[in-house]
């Protein structure tokens, strides 16, 4: 048996450990390859509420959410999603209680350390997006070590967003462009959307196709603002510790059913003798969002 397989680019890479099937036996939906999102962003929301419903400390909800993230990663691998971004700790999370902040930083550090080998075995490339700033050096070390260990993996890029803020990322990119302009290395008139994109934290990760948030909240919370300019949004009622790959797959089915026009439009068919200005009703606006609980997809 060969110890190597070939990726889509013809490069030779070691065989990797396949994803563990879901305990229920569920399999990913049959979505055409061209309708599978290239980049899914996930806001892992609802840990605190999950814990509160059970009379537990908020930190217990965060602990329970770790297995949910790993199951979603397994589901992304099964479905062939090439990029997954997880919102682990935001620039706004520093406003939480000192005890919860300390827990979250240590928890993120330990999660990366404890899961690094499993991710590597499955062919996952880990990338860190965020500001060093106030972040613990031990957290940065674990993130950097995981990046180095997994840098040649090609099956899935997991962008782990720690001390991340969408506005901060855009500001950091603007600062670098301003610095280059002040040094005469770039003309302000030559700066385009693509130029700014190349100065984001992970310019090689494509724009977000599908933005998923658990717990029923319907907001971006400063996550991947630039990259989500044309993303499809799916908001699910499931609290994050109860979330698993089946929820990810359901969101992907919803995504595949959407009509993505990127600002363009096909002229409406007009009956003979009628004006195109007649009463028209749209049945699926591109800006619609979907808010569902498990089992509500038809």
TrEMBL record:
Any idea which UniProt keywords this protein has? Magnesium, Metal-binding, Transferase
Q: Where is this region: Disordered?
A: 1-33, 265-298
Q: What is its EC number?
A: 2.5.1.-
Q: Which PROSITE patterns match?
A: UPP_SYNTHASE
InterPro entries membership:
UPP_synth-like, UPP_synth-like_CS, UPP_synth-like_sf
Needed co-factor(s) = Mg(2+)
Query: Known CDD domains for this protein?
Result: Cis_IPPS
Which residue windows are transmembrane per the record? none
Question: What are its GO biological-process terms?
Answer: polyprenol biosynthetic process
User: Active-site residues?
Assistant: 45, 93
Any single GO CC term annotated in Swiss-Prot or TrEMBL for this entry = cytosol
- How cofactor binds (record note)? Binds 2 magnesium ions per subunit.
GO function term, MF aspect, one: magnesium ion binding
What is the official name of this protein in its record? Answer: Isoprenyl transferase
Annotated function: Catalyzes the condensation of isopentenyl diphosphate (IPP) with allylic pyrophosphates generating different type of terpenoids.
Can you tell me which residues bind substrate?
46-50, 58, 62, 90-92, 94, 96, 213, 219-221
> What is the similarity comment for this entry?
Belongs to the UPP synthase family.
Instruction: Cite a single Pfam family from the UniProt record.
Output: Prenyltransf
**Which positions in this protein are listed as binding Mg(2+)?**
45, 232
Is Transcription regulation among this UniProt entry's keywords? Answer: no
């Amino acid at each position: 048996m060969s110890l190597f397989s070939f990726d889509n680019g013809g490069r030779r890479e070691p065989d990797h450990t396949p994803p563990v099937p879901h305990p229920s036996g569920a399999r990913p939906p049959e979505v055409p390859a061209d309708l599978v999102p290239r980049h899914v962003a996930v806001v892992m929301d609802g840990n605190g509420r999950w814990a509160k419903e059970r009379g537990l400390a908020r930190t217990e909800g965060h602990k329970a959410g770790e297995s949910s993230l790993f199951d979603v990663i397994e589901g992304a691998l099964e479905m062939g999603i090439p990029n997954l971004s997880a919102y682990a700790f935001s620039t706004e999370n520093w406003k939480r209680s000192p005890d919860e902040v300390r827990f979250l930083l240590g928890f993120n550090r330990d999660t990366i350390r404890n899961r690094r080998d499993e991710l590597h075995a499955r062919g996952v490339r880990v990338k860190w997006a965020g500001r060093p700033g106030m972040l613990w050096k031990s957290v940065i070390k674990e993130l950097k070590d995981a990046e180095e260990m997994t840098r040649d993996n090609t099956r899935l890029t997991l962008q782990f967003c720690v001390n991340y803020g969408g506005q901060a990322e855009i500001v950091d990119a603007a600062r670098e462009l301003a610095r280059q302009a002040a040094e005469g290395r770039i003309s302000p008139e030559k700066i385009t959307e693509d130029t700014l994109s190349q100065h984001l934290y992970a310019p090689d990760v494509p724009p977000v196709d599908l933005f998923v948030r658990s717990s029923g909240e319907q907001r971006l919370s400063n996550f991947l603002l630039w990259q989500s300019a044309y993303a499809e949004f799916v908001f699910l009622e499931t609290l994050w510790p109860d979330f698993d790959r089946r929820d990810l797959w359901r969101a992907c089915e919803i995504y595949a059913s959407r009509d993505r026009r990127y600002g363009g439009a096909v002229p409406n068919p007009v009956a003979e003798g009628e004006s195109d200005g007649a009463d028209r009703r749209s049945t699926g606006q591109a800006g619609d969002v979907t808010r569902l609980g498990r089992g509500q997809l038809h």
